[in-house]
Specification:
The protein has a 5-stranded antiparallel beta sheet, with helices on one face. Helix content is 14%, strand content 30%. The chain is of the alpha+beta class.
Length: 119
């Protein structure tokens, strides 16, 4: 499983659930399209194919809002064994839309060449 970078982690929504089902069953529910469509419809996904996957551990999907401004995000589902034969499902939802990335402004003192203004 991969950890998110500290500065990105603050912007992400992170939820963790303890489930009675074994990890293999939870993995099927989040990775097999026929099962996944019952609780995460294909219309909510920007692409039905996962962005990345680590079989049995982690899968990522790109989602797109159904209403304007149609923002895109990546949702990561992580599955690990829990106590008493159950599993722990961790859901990390982070906005990745380019429109939300702050633009870098040049520094006020950019140490560039001096230019004389004409009077």
């Amino acid at each position: 499983m991969s950890d998110t970078e500290p500065e990105k982690q603050a912007a992400n929504l992170v939820f963790e659930y303890e489930l009675d089902a074994p990890p293999e069953q939870v993995w099927r529910a989040i990775s097999v399209p026929g099962f996944r469509d019952k609780w995460l419809p294909e219309e909510d996904l920007a692409d039905a194919a996962p962005v990345s996957t680590a079989p049995g551990e982690e899968i990522r999907y790109t989602m797109r809002d159904g209403e304007p401004p149609f923002l895109e995000s990546v949702v990561t589902f992580q599955v690990r064994p829990g106590a008493d034969g159950g599993s722990i499902l961790r859901v990390v939802h982070g906005l990745t839309d380019a429109r939300l990335v702050p633009r870098k402004m040049p520094a006020a003192n950019n140490n560039g060449p001096w230019m004389m203004l004409a009077a």
